[in-house]
Amino acid sequence: MKLLTLSLLAAVAAVAFGGNDFQQPLQPADFSQIPYLGFGTWNLDKSNASEAVSAALQAGYRHLDCATIYGNQKQVGKGIEDGLKKANLTRSDIWVTSKLWNDHHDPSLVEEALEQTLLDLGLEYLDLWLMHWPVASSQGQTKLDYIKAWHGMEEMHMARKVRNIGVSNFSPAQLSDVIEHSTIKPAVHQFECHPYLPQSDWVNWHKTLGIQVTAYSPFANTNPTYIPIEGDPPHLLTNIDMLAIAAERGCTTAQVALVWGLSRGYSVIPKSSHVEHIKENFAAIDCHLTK
User: DSSP code of 113?
Assistant: First the structure.
């Protein structure tokens, strides 16, 4: 697998970034203003998750991506409280996403899952609630099951406990199925997307549907869940084309990867537990891939 060449990658990045355009706070019920550069909380250790989230808000992030299964939402909630205070922000200044886990797809359990998430995060509402996977887990068994859970999420939206609802890791057939059998179309679909896995047709199809994309793992195979196998490409952030682009543009390879995603019109959610990397990633908004 070969990374997009420098010329192609630069051509794809048709948007020149300047200022803080991707960090305008969302207005109520206006999804188009989601802060595109978000901060991911997956794999943040409980020991420093609060500090990392607080640092992210202080660095300028206004979009936090969370999930029940990450097991750190209580610590994330403490970080939100601390970060808002130290950055002189209010709840309405930030966008918070969380996700429904597989063991609460039964419609009778959906509200319970949301209430626990809100309690853990210390919030009264979510800006976005995603169905993490289109599968339900119960009594040690897992099966495809998402329509009834989606209807339960629709009820939470109508109750104004969540401003937007969406999905994550769905196939084209599953996404079409949800749309066909829903009152509320998913506002967002979160899935893996990066220069090693551009999924251009899939991204463009979402644009035709009016569904926003959020890309996780924007640094590709730096994701610790990847098990290296012979023949794999080098880590994205050490790829020679990425290094060349970064040197030409005066950016880091991480910033190039993030701006590549942002320029395609979707949000990206890098994660780091180190303050210097948190700040470096946020500075991607000042990295230009076009002259």
Answer: H
C-alpha to C-alpha distances, 39 to 67, 244, 279, nearest whole angstrom: 12, 26, 11
Q: How far apart are CA 95 and CA 90, in angstroms?
A: 11
Separation CA 26–CA 38 (nearest Å)? 13
The full length of the chain comes to: 291
Rounded Cα distance, 80 and 158, in Å: 25
- Examine the pLDDT at 147 and tell me if it is beyond 90: yes
Q: How many CA atoms lie within 13 A of 43 on its CB side?
A: 12
pLDDT value for 230: 78
Residue 185 CA to chain centroid, in angstroms?
19
Give a three-class secondary structure readout of 206-220: HHHHCCEEEEECCCH
Which helix (H) or strand (E) covers residue 130, if one does?
Answer: strand 128-131
Please give the residue that has the higher pLDDT: either 96 or 2: 96
Strand partners, 216: 192
- Measure CA of the first residue to CA of the last residue in the chain; give whole Å: 28
- Sign, CA dihedral 220-222-223-226, equals positive
Q: For residues 101 and 116, is the Cβ–Cβ distance under 8 A?
A: no
- The pLDDT value recorded for residue 80 is 98
Amino acid symbol at 259? V
Q: Is this prediction's pTM over 0.85?
A: yes
- Residues carrying an active site annotation: 70
**Distance set, CA 272 to CA 41, 79, 110, 205 (Å):** 8, 14, 30, 30
How many CB atoms sit inside 10 A of residue 215's CB? 25
Q: Is the pLDDT of residue 17 over 50?
A: no
